[in-house]
Amino acid sequence: MAEATLFDTFARAPLRFERGEGVWLVTEGGERYLDFGAGVAVNSLGHAHPHLVEALKAQAEKVWHTSNLYEVPGQETLSRRLTENSFADKAFFTNSGAEALECAIKTARRYQYVKGHPERFHIVTFEGAFHGRTLATIAAGGQAKYLEGFGPKVEGFDQVPFGDLDALNAVVGEKTAAILIEPIQGEGGIRPVPKEFLQALRKICDDNGILLVFDEVQCGVARTGKLFAYEWSGVAPDIMALAKGIGGGFPLGACLATAEAASGMTAGTHGTTYGGNPLAMAVGNAVMDVVLAEGFLAHVRDVSLVFRQGLAGLKDRFPEIIEEIRGEGLLLGMKAKVPAGDLVGAMRGERLLGVPAGDNVVRLLPPLTVTAEEAREGLARIEKAAEKLSASLMKKSA
Fold it and tell me: Given a cut of 90, is residue 394 above it in pLDDT?
């Protein structure tokens, strides 16, 4: 088998998809699956979206790559659209979310350095966080399962319990450069951070001369029903990492920052060969065409309401299977009473795809283009999966 030649780092489901159509994926054998995983919140506009396909094809016939030795017009367009619609003044383009977080970390540390505080390089993070798979970002996430076997943990990351202000205040000190947090934890189990907590973080940063960094790799770009998740709290960061949905399936990330926060990132301090290449910029701008169109965010919120109400009904009907419904917009999670992997497997048996997360949660991340009718179809399949799991539990207990 060809798979024997791959690293054994993924426990892959035995499915091979040949093509996609909107919210559907089709296997080599012609079986159709409702995709409520969206490549882990990546395929924000579904599969084979005609506007994205046309943008990629048109650019592919022109130029693919020139490197950042030269100006890339698409970068100027996309950076302007992102900054005009956010807190930021500056943007740096990457190939992935981990790279966007690396840039955010470096930007925060460099800011303190040029301000005359080289000792300020520590970043405070929170338990349950996931910020990527590089050596620095696994140190930022702090989860033992990702750190094990990779040598000493990268220095400069101080982790505190999720939502614990006292612990946070105890660790913020003379070495602190920034606080890094996901407005909604994704891998950690779809855990929204209360707006009051984000407001408290903003005040701590302002009072101590440190920067507030948001990781919106999973929750950004319309996923919550606003363009960026931080908008729900009214708290703006100094730096923000984006990826996943901004590329609609094409590898693309971005680090956004205020002019002040980015003031240390001068020529030669950071770089990328592929980041911001013409192909990525063409797709990123096509995504923005869609998500910035009138009515798109309202659509996400409307479908979310239908979906969430249906999930609440399933929770009431199957309390032995579903403990809690979490999330915002179309970033939703079911905290399960049974092992989350069992629920994902049962859903897959009904040809519905979801994504497991921490805290025994199953993530539901449909493309943002999903219709209310498709959401109801997904609910019907979750219901069938829950019925089978419930029957299995009854049989075991009999």
Answer: no
Q: Can you give the pLDDT at residue 227?
A: 98
CATH code of 63-291, in short, is 3.40.640.10
DSSP helix/strand/coil, 126? strand
Bridge partners of 1, per DSSP, are none
**Complete DSSP assignment for 267-311:** TTSS--SSTT-HHHHHHHHHHHHHHTSTTHHHHHHHHHHHHHHHH
CATH 3.90.1150.10 spans which residues of the chain? 2-47+295-397
Contact predicate 398/333, CB 8 Å: no
Burial profile 243-272: b = 16 or more Cβ within 10 angstroms, e = fewer = bbbbbbbbbbbbbbbbeebbebbeeeebeb
Please measure the distance between the N-terminal and C-terminal CA atoms of the chain and give it in whole angstroms. Answer: 42
Smallest Cα–Cα separation from 368: which of 44, 132, 143, 43? 44
Which residue in 59, 72, 93, 82 sits closest to 275, CA to CA? Answer: 93
For residue 338, give the nearest of 317, 356, 321 by alpha carbon: 321
Signed CA dihedral, 181, 125, 169, 358: sign only: positive
Q: What is the pTM of this model?
A: 0.96
Of 280, 286, 249, nearest to 63 (Cα)? 280
Q: Alpha carbon of 334 to those of 10, 38, 300, 356: distances in Å?
A: 23, 16, 19, 10
Q: For residue range 112-168, what is the model confidence (pLDDT) as tens digits?
A: 999 999 999 999 999 999 999 999 999 999 999 999 999 999 999 999 999 999 999
| 3-state SS assignment for residue 91 | strand
Does the domain made of 2-47+295-397 have the CATH classification 2.30.110.10? no
